[in-house]
Write a structure and sequence with these properties.
Elements: H1 6-13, H2 18-24, H3 29-36, H4 38-51, E1 55-61, E2 64-69, E3 72-78, E4 89-95, E5 98-109, E6 113-122, E7 127-130, E8 145-155, E9 160-170, E10 176-185, E11 190-194, E12 199-200, E13 214-221, E14 229-235, E15 240-244, H5 270-274, E16 277-282, E17 288-293, E18 297-302, E19 307-310, E20 321-326, H6 340-357
Antiparallel strand pairs: 1-2, 1-20, 2-3, 4-5, 5-6, 6-7, 8-9, 9-10, 10-11, 12-13, 13-14, 14-15, 16-17, 17-18, 18-19
Helix pairs in contact: 4-6
Length: about 350
């Protein structure tokens, strides 16, 4: 068998699923160094996104997570966790194959109940990173109720992954009186406070689906109880909030981009029959779109025929929440994508050493 160059080997391996790549790391030290290198990880991720492969849907239900491959969505696979959690558990957002989860530890507080912890988790590799606790600066106005929401995105400017935490403080009448925002940096493994947005989040939901380095939510301008809904964007690179132009109609569950390009429209009679629909992913041929119907079941929408069909899933009787993610090798060591050239040079050096030995 002829000796192939490292570039050819990397090109072939970058087309394989994550499960196969994890097994192939045992072939040699060279292959392990190649597959673990940031350059290969980024190349594999980009190729998966461009070719619409390695796409899966993560389903949250009663303290468990299931994974569904879009190409074989009829079978659910239970995701096992390398960390222990107590009672309640929920996943909040996804980005580049990483999942932001929120769980309760076994340690309890006599006044507030179980201590809740955030963690970033890659279900494909089993690696995870527990986030440090974020302090809260309560307003000086008497007893308040605190509500928090989360977003997750990649910061391309600083080559970092950021977790956004938005807190709302409400008085005894459940009226929003103040808010604050914190951002977690994976690189520094720490939280920092940023200027909060003057938008109330009536639905208490930050859309987990992020576009590039921007996450979106539906809110109302100011802390008005009732008001016109607006779409609020948080850009991870600049750590700033802004209001983006909305389309003719604004619903709670929408998929958006910064230019509001209309990719497809779902109208009557489908909307009339299902009411609340959340788009998750395209099929491999991009002829159908997988939709989440009211967090109860999954359906396929045919873009040409304008028709729907159920997508029954074995091993998953019902759904609580669902988000799409790309299976990836993205690590959680805090080194992002900046060291691509350096790591690639190390792999090439390793290849030269192996050639000399042969």
């Amino acid at each position: 068998m002829p000796t192939f160059s490292l570039e050819i080997i990397a090109n072939v391996l970058s087309r394989l699923p994550v499960k196969s790549l994890l097994r192939l790391k045992c072939v040699s030290h060279l292959w392990r160094a190649l597959i673990d290198s940031p350059h290969f990880i980024v190349t594999h991720l980009i190729r998966s996104i461009q070719t619409n492969t390695n796409t899966a849907v993560v389903i949250g239900k009663r303290g468990t997570l299931h994974s569904l491959d879009v190409d074989s969505i009829d079978q659910a696979t239970l995701i096992t966790f390398p960390f222990k959690y107590y009672d309640s558990f929920a996943f909040l957002a996804t980005c580049d194959g990483l999942i932001l989860v929120h769980y309760a530890t076994s340690c309890t507080n006599l006044f507030s109940g179980p201590i809740r912890t955030l963690a970033l988790f890659n279900p494909s590799t089993g690696k995870y990173q527990v986030l440090p606790a974020s302090d809260v600066l309560y307003p000086n106005c008497g007893p308040v109720t605190m509500l928090d929401d989360y977003g997750f995105a990649y910061d391309a400017i600083n080559d970092d992954y950021n977790v956004l935490r938005v807190l709302e403080f409400r008085d005894w009448n459940y009226k929003c009186i103040d808010s604050e925002a914190r951002v977690y940096s994976l690189k520094s493994n720490s939280w920092s406070r940023i200027p909060s947005c003057a938008y109330r989040d009536p639905d208490r939901k930050i859309l987990a689906g992020q576009v590039k380095d921007v996450v979106h939510t539906i809110g109302t301008k100011g802390f008005i109880r009732e008001g016109d809904k607006v779409i609020v964007a948080f850009k991870a690179g600049t750590k700033e909030f802004s209001m983006v132009p909305k389309m003719e109609k604004c619903y709670t569950d929408v998929s958006v981009d910064e230019s509001w390009t209309r990719l497809f429209t779902i109208g009557p009679p489908v909307v009339g029959a299902y009411r609340i629909l959340s788009p998750l992913a395209y099929s491999r041929c991009r002829g159908e779109v997988l939709l989440n119907f009211n967090d109860k079941k999954l359906i396929w929408y045919d873009l040409m025929r304008k028709s729907v069909r159920d997508a029954p899933v074995r091993g998953l009787p019902s759904i609580c929440c669902a988000e799409v993610y790309v299976k990836s090798l993205v690590s959680l060591d805090g080194c992002g994508k900046v060291k691509v050239k350096k790591q690639q040079g190390q792999v090439q050096t390793e290849e030269k050493k192996n050639k000399k030995k042969r």
